[in-house]
Amino acid sequence: MFFDGYGYHGGSFEQTYRCYPASFIDKAQIENGDKVIMPPSALDRLASLHIDYPMLFELRNDAAERMSHCGVLEFIAEEGLIYMPYWMMENLLLQEGDFVRVKNVTLPKGTYVKLQPHTKDFLDISNPKAILETTLRNFSCLTTGDSIMVAYNNKKYYIDIVEAKPSSGISIIETDCEVDFAPPLDYKEPEKPTASGLNSKAPAEGQEPSVDTEPKFNPFTGVGRRLDGKPLSLSSGSLPSTLHSHDKKANGSNPGPSAPSSSSSQNTNRKSQGKLVFGSNANRPEETQKDASKDSKPEPPKTEESKFQAFTGKKYSLKG
Question: pTM (2 decimals)?
Answer without folding.
Answer: 0.56
